[in-house]
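A brief tutorial aside. Many learners find it easier to grasp structure tokens once they have seen a single protein encoded end to end. The record that follows does exactly this for Aspartate carbamoyltransferase. Read the sequence first, then the structure, and try to relate runs of similar tokens to stretches of the chain.
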Amino acid sequence: MLSAQIEKTTQKGLCTMNELSVSEVLDLLKTAESFAAGAVWKPERQLFVANLFFEPSTRTRFSFEVAERRLGLEVLQFDGQHASTQKGESLYDTARTLESIGASALVIRHRQDAYFHELKGLSVPIINAGDGCGNHPTQSLLDLLTIKQEFSSFSGLHVVIAGDLAHSRVARSNADILTRLGARVSVAGPIEWMGEFTDTYTHVSMDEAARQADVLMMLRVQHERHDGNALFSKEAYHQAYGLTEQREALMAKQSIIMHPAPVNRDVEIASVLVECKRSRIYKQSANGVAVRMAVLKRALA
């Protein structure tokens, strides 16, 4: 019975945005838009989905859970503090066990870059909810949906991704697909936090970013991924690389502010701007449910 359940899944997992063609991205956005508008889809049989979060998460974890419940899926919540991984069990063995007891898809967030390469022997779809500094494909899709709702098209838009790019799986997932969709991507922030991005994308100052961007995509400073030795002043960072009220005043009338959250208020963005008229931060969170419903339907239909 369980084998039959597994065989019936399509194995259309999602680990990186690079594995999606432009047409597949647009199809997922179309499906997400239909879910956001109230469309309903339920699997024909009882299906279990396991959520394995090895890193802290609020938005992504609960967004997946709401999406799963709206699709009528049974949710298996993995508790890393009381699981066999505390006894030394590998990620593969944990995932293989959940597959064997009937999970039809695995949603995984893990601190290790590209952890999914270790799971290639599994038969069930793997949906990447974030891997280290590598990829965050469902965040990318919800960002794309938010931009599409605002501008209808990506072609010709100038998107500036600003902040801690070197440690950002959001930036890594978004930059290439936005370019493939026809947008112009630039980067801003401390040059020592640009990583490989300046090899491909133009680096602009934060004042230039504010003046030029249709979409100003701010990123969180990921202190947990730094070595902990660098001196860091919140006030100095905010003045040099943050979106201050003065910079927001430079932005064009139609431009919008995005941030994957959680937001460090008065560091990346002035606190008063988090919910300002041009901010789409909570819209992004809302879109996460519809996008994850679309990704789960693609994996299980």
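Self-check: The domain at 22-137+286-300 is CATH 3.40.50.1370 (Rossmann fold). If you spotted this yourself, you are ready for the next section.
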